């Protein structure tokens, strides 16, 4: 069975098809930069990205495969086909949607967990509630993560990062708990580890420059709207 990565920061290196950094070679460079910065593991989507990242870094990879099916809202490694592809690509840990929502073709989550374990890989359960985390542990998942809080019908109102869910999971399960979703500042990382998180997954705040840029642009626009009358006094020594 795969050995778990040490506690620390996990960087999610993912890009959608309509984003500038989309492509396995770009994501591999992003992953390498994340490892050079101290990331203890990489979270990656699709067999192509996982394969290329696997050749570029020597830290554990949390692999997933996002595929949409018409008969289910579950899209994170939803069926045996995606599990097999992720494993073959070289993922050390397979992440899957472990919410209580119906799965494509009514596939059993237990069957997916067993399949992953049969391949000698660990299972990361992406959940949205504490009850889902408890059930995921009972079914044999090796880690749980707050990944899907804010993305299911019953949790869309939640403020991210969902520290309430994180604290509840840490209290309710004995497996390692990861914090993921809406983590943008070092202070939030500190809060997550103070609560007892084993690891913190950071994605957009590190790997999506268009989103990072927008935060600074929004700050500039806010400054303009407030019509600051006095210009900022810059230190001539800087």
Characterize this entry briefly.
This protein has 238 residues and is of the alpha/beta class.
Give a verbal description of the structure:
- 42% of the residues are buried.
- This protein has an eight-stranded parallel β-barrel with strand order 1-2-3-4-5-6-7-8, surrounded by seven helices.
- The chain starts with 7 loop residues before the first strand and ends in a 13-residue tail after the last helix.
- It is globular.
- Helix 1 (24-36) crosses helix 2 (47-56) and helix 5 (130-139) runs parallel beside helix 6.
- The model has no long low-confidence stretch (mean pLDDT 94).
- Helix 1 (24-36) links the parallel strand 1 and strand 2 (41-45).
- It has helices spanning 24-36, 47-56, 80-89, 109-118, 130-139, 163-172, 186-195, 204-207, 209-225, and strands spanning 8-13, 41-45, 61-64, 93-97, 122-126, 143-145, 177-180, 199-202.
- It is an alpha/beta fold and 238 residues long.
- Helix content is 39%, strand content 15%.
- The overall pLDDT average reads 94
Helix content: 25-40%
Radius of gyration: 19 Å
Q: Biggest sheet, in brief?
A: 8 strands, parallel, barrel
Q: In order across it, which strands form the biggest sheet?
A: 1-2-3-4-5-6-7-8
> Spans of 5+ residues with little confidence (pLDDT < 50)?
none
Structural class by sheet pairing and helices = alpha/beta
Number of helices: 9
Strand content: 15-25%
Q: CA-to-CA gap between the ends?
A: 53 Å
Q: What does the overall shape look like?
A: globular
Question: Would you report the number of β strands?
Answer: 8
User: Helix and strand string, N-terminal first?
Assistant: EHEHEHEHEHEHEHEHH
């Amino acid at each position: 069975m795969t050995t778990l990565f040490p506690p620390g920061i996990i960087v999610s290196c993912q890009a959608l098809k309509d984003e500038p950094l989309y492509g396995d070679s770009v994501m591999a460079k992003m992953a390498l930069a994340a490892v050079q910065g101290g990331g203890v593991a990489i979270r990656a989507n699709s067999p192509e990205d996982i394969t290329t990242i696997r050749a570029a870094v020597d830290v554990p990879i949390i692999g997933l495969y996002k595929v949409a099916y018409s008969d289910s809202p579950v899209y994170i490694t939803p069926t045996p086909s995606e599990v097999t592809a992720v494993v073959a690509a070289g993922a050390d840990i397979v992440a899957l949607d472990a919410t209580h929502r119906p799965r494509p073709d009514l596939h059993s989550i237990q069957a997916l967990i067993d399949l992953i374990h049969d391949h000698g890989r660990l299972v990361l359960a992406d959940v949205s509630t504490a009850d889902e985390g408890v059930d995921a542990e009972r079914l044999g998942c090796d880690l749980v993560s707050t990944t899907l809080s804010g993305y299911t019908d019953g949790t869309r109102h939640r403020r991210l990062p969902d520290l309430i869910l994180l604290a509840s999971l840490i209290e309710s399960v004995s497996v390692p708990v990861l914090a993921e979703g809406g983590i943008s500042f070092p202070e939030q990382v500190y809060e997550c580890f103070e609560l007892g998180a084993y690891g913190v997954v950071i994605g957009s705040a590190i790997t999506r420059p268009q989103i990072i840029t927008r935060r600074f642009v929004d700050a500039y626009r806010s400054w303009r709207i407030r019509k600051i009358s006095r210009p900022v006094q810059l230190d001539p020594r800087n």
